[in-house]
Amino acid sequence: MKNSGFCNALTGCTLLVASALEAAPDQRQRVTDSDVIRRLVDASLVDEEDGMRQATRDLVERGAAVVPGLVPLLDHQDANVRWQAVLTGERIGRGSTELLDPLVRASRDKDADVLGATVLALTELFPRRPETADAVDRLRGDVHELVQANAWMNAWRLKKDLTAVEALVRFLGNRDWMVAEGASRHLVSIGAPAVGHVRRAAGDETFPGRVEALGVAGRIDGVGARTIAVLRAAAYNEDRRVSTAAVLALAGIGKPSVTSLIGLLGSSEERLRKQAIEALGTVGPEAKAAVPALCDFLDDVRVQGPSIRALSRIGSTDEKRLRRMTAFLDNANADVRAAAVAALGSLGGAPGVAATEARTALRALAVGDSKDFVRQAAREALQRLERDGC
User: Fold this and answer.
1) CATH class assigned to 317-390
2) What's the rounded Cα separation, in Å, for the pair 27 and 31?
């Protein structure tokens, strides 16, 4: 009987627990849309980035259902709250026509961040509405130049008007780095239709945004031989900022610019030769045509390290070059030894006696080099080789 009573009591407790669990609502369901919107407001008021990011993420997960709760925030007294509301609305408001009028009102805001986000939101959510076209046209003449740049970019998105490209190129010379950087990003996103305008700016010695234009030329799609010729010429410019930007742009273009970079190796200026070597390393395996020329620099103590690093990034594992790299492990310059270690650490599955000798030398260096950073580099190189099954 005692056992029976105990079982009945246990059964009763089990039923009570089960009933309680069934009655308890899911914690996530107890957090309402209003709760999350309130978190967004609170975080925005103190400019707490993690809080704003998390609240925005939660609202985006909830989707268009939270749009009605966002609309009042577009008229909030705090500019940061309005800005975050626009940013969030742009991500979840597709098809939500109730956002149109509040966003049109926001396009007359006094805050630059709000205006910049609003012109993007209108273009993204309501590209065919005349209110959007009117707002974009008006904001191209806004007092804030960053807003102007954003408006011109969205004018391109709406109409594919090349005057927008011309305006964005002009903004590359803006004294405000944020405006110039924004224009750079916009031009890169436009791509091939902007290449001709960017090329002309990159070759114009009087243009104040020439360095920025060179940077865009190295990142934009659709670059051809004419642009590469402009960059090659700019690499020889006496202004080091221009020269450096041109070499970096050639590196960014990649394989099509390898011939031009190899040509720069013949410069009488050591700085330019070094930059060209580093640029070829940046191009990587697609710069294999440069290997013979780079090997010629291995005996030049001024650029030994950069040459070794470039060859390692390009990939060169024939017996002769492996032996030359291994020989650098005995170099008096610790930086050269470290560069050679990195190069040998990228052997991959290179076969043959030279590869075996290189691994043996790396093991010796890992325990016997006088410099700790070289020993550490040798250990890491050996670990890479072991991980690759070498």
Assistant:
1) mainly alpha
2) 7
Q: Which CATH class is domain 160-253?
A: mainly alpha
- The DSSP symbol for 206 reads T
Task: Give every CB contact of residue 317 below 8 A, 6+ residues apart in sequence.
Answer: 347, 348, 350, 355
Are 315 and 289 contacting, i.e. CB atoms less than 8 angstroms apart?
A: no
User: Using one digit for the tens of pLDDT, what is the confidence trace for 149-170?
Assistant: 999 999 999 999 899 999 999 9
Reported as a single tens digit per residue, the pLDDT across 10-38 is 444 444 444 444 544 454 457 899 999 99
Burial 356-388 (b: 16+ CB within 10 A, else e): eebbebbeebbeebeeeebbebbbebbebbeee
**Residue 347 gets which letter from DSSP?**
-
Say how far apart CA 96 and CA 125 lie, in whole Å.
8
- The reported pLDDT for the residue numbered 390 is 47
Please state the pTM of the whole predicted model: 0.80
Phi-psi region of 221 (alpha: psi -120 to 50; beta: other; left: phi over 0): beta
Domain spanning 34-158: which superfamily? Leucine-rich Repeat Variant (1.25.10.10)
Domain coordinates of the chain in residue numbers? 34-158, 160-253, 317-390
Query: 160-253: same fold as 34-158?
Result: yes
**Angle between helix 112-125 and helix 145-159 axes, rounded to 10 deg:** 10
Distance CA 223, CA 213 (A): 13
Give the contacts of 81 (CB within 8 A, at least 6 positions apart).
40, 41, 44, 45, 73
